[in-house]
């Protein structure tokens, strides 16, 4: 999961990565 400053849309994959990392 990579932070996208130019895109405010967070993909479900990124959300999963964030939740797992948390």
UniProtKB/TrEMBL annotation:
<protein>
    <submittedName>
        <fullName>Proteolysis tag peptide encoded by tmRNA Chlam_trach_434Bu</fullName>
    </submittedName>
</protein>
